Write a sequence for this structure.
């Protein structure tokens, strides 16, 4: 609330605080009035009138401009407590801080705070729980230049986090089941944490499947012996057809079509390649793959209340690690397999890290390189009346593409690709802040410009890498130890308790609370979609919950049978 006694006392010695016609106070800063000079309280009431009918507990209000706090006071009086206040003017903020006393703890972005502080607030608030997210702009105190970075950051955070939430709603069930099924492959797998602990100190190139990968194949053939090469799963077929064998292939796709990335490749070619598979990956792939297996766990970067970054891992995997006394190794992801491969390369001590085929754009009006399985899938949609270019243009149109600065002029991209670009740029910023001069090289032949990555012409890059000499690959994968059978046994023992709990679980409206207060709280992630629908709309989807519980029990029985 506004402490009006303090405000009046402060007005006697601060000429920026001026009287209004109705006897209140406004601010005159830099020749402009922050509040109405007639009635600032009526102005505040008009500002928030569209928000008042909304659910208070499920509404997030982002306020651009604190002023003297009239609008904030009205929000408080009407029961709104999920509020982030951003004030960029030091003079306004100094006055506001002196005279406003919150009855709760809001999110405050002060003039000296970095834009990244927004991330910690969005993490703590769990924005997916809100039905409404509203932005209030105090026009008298608003300056576009000062607020632009914060508005852009808010827009990106909302899109990314709500997009992540939608992805989890769609795939959480598959992820959960795949993690369980992949337990049967742990006895023939190493941990990615053991591999990243090697600190190679040698170049790693990450080969992605962007349209311009075909232009980088000659370079990759030249540098093959001078780098450790990691291919994303969709790029492996392109490398096979070019006669290039990477050292590792990285996969994290949970869907069954991901197997198509490998089915057209001879097994003897893959036998000498290591597969880093995320625990959520389709379990048929490590069953099929003939090379060395390395199990990894995806963790998402979040920020605590102090703005410090931390990795948040899958709850089921966290439970498995605790009861199995094991750490698989956490790999950060920005939503794509290439982002995971990049973080893996950094943890493994690569220097430099090179990326190629990372167009993040529709170079040549295509989404993927020719010869990728994805390109072949698109090809099936063609006929003599609909050429492949028309199909790709149709795909682009459906994704609402836009032009962005590229390495060879402007190039078309879309929101999802631009989000991946943002992840790479944020990662580069973080690395360069902590390790100034760290060599990050973008050797992609075409595509968007990625800030923080040095562009090096491919011919020059070949010369530089060859000067460093060939890398010793003999010790890269051979000494890896398989996961200890004792740890696997402990995990299986824990799953017996999970099966007993699920078998006795009553399918009623109290199920989510029963799960939450049990030793298996992570099970609510498996029931995430049904839980959200029940909490938001009061609709209890008994049929879907019974189906999921049945599927879970049968998969647990299958795990125990395979382990016998």
């Amino acid at each position: 609330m506004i402490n009006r006694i303090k405000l009046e006392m402060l007005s006697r010695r601060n000429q920026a605080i001026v009287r209004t016609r109705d006897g209140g106070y406004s601010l005159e800063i830099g020749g402009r009035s922050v509040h109405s000079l007639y009635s600032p309280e009526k102005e505040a009431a008009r500002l928030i009138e569209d928000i008042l009918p909304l659910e208070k507990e499920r509404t997030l209000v982002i306020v651009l401009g604190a002023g003297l706090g009239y609008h904030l006071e009205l929000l408080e009086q009407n029961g709104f407590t999920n509020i982030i206040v951003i004030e960029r003017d030091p003079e306004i903020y100094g006055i506001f801080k002196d005279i406003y006393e919150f009855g709760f703890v809001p999110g405050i972005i002060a003039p000296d705070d970095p834009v990244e502080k927004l991330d910690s607030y969005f993490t703590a608030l769990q924005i997916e729980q809100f039905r409404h997210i509203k932005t209030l702009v105090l026009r008298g105190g608003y300056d576009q230049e000062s607020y632009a970075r914060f508005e852009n950051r808010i827009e990106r955070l909302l899109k990314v986090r709500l997009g992540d939430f939608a992805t989890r709603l769609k795939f959480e069930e598959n992820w959960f089941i795949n993690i369980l099924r992949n337990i049967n492959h742990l006895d023939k797998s190493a941990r990615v944490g053991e591999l990243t602990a090697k600190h190679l100190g040698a170049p790693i190139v990450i080969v992605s499947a962007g349209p311009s990968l075909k232009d980088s194949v000659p370079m990759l053939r030249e540098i093959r012996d001078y780098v450790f090469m990691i291919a994303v799963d969709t790029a492996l077929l392109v490398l096979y057809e070019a006669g290039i064998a990477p050292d590792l292939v990285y996969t994290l796709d949970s869907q069954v079509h991901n197997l198509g990335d490998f089915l057209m490749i001879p097994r003897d070619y893959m036998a000498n390649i290591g597969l880093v598979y995320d625990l959520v990956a389709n379990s048929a792939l490590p069953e099929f793959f003939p090379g060395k297996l390395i199990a990894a766990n995806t963790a998402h970067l979040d920020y605590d209340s102090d703005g410090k970054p931390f990795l948040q891992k899958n709850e089921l995997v966290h439970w498995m690690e605790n009861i199995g006394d094991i750490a698989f190794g956490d790999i950060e992801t920005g939503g794509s397999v290439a982002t995971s491969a990049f973080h893996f390369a950094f943890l493994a001590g690569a220097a430099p890290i090179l990326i190629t085929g990372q167009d993040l754009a529709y170079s040549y009006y295509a989404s993927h390189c020719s010869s990728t399985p994805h390109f072949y899938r698109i090809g099936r949609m063609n006929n003599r009346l609909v050429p492949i270019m028309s199909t790709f243009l149709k795909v682009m149109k459906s994704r609402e593409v836009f032009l962005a600065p590229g390495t060879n002029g402007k190039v078309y991209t879309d929101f999802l690709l631009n989000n991946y670009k943002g992840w790479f740029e944020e990662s580069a910023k973080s690395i360069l802040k902590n390790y100034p001069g760290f060599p990050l090289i973008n050797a992609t032949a075409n595509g968007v410009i990625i800030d923080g990555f040095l562009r090096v012409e491919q011919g020059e890059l070949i010369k530089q890498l060859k000067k460093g000499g060939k890398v010793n690959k003999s010790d890269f994968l051979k000494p890896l130890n398989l996961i200890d059978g004792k740890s696997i046994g402990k995990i299986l023992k824990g799953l017996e308790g999970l099966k007993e709990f699920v078998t006795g679980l009553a399918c009623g409206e109290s199920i989510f609370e029963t799960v939450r207060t049990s030793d298996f709280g992570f099970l609510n992630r498996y029931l995430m979609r049904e839980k959200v629908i029940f909490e938001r709309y009061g609709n209890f989807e008994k049929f879907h919950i019974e189906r999921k519980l049945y599927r879970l029990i049968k998969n647990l029985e299958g795990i125990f049978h395979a382990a016998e």
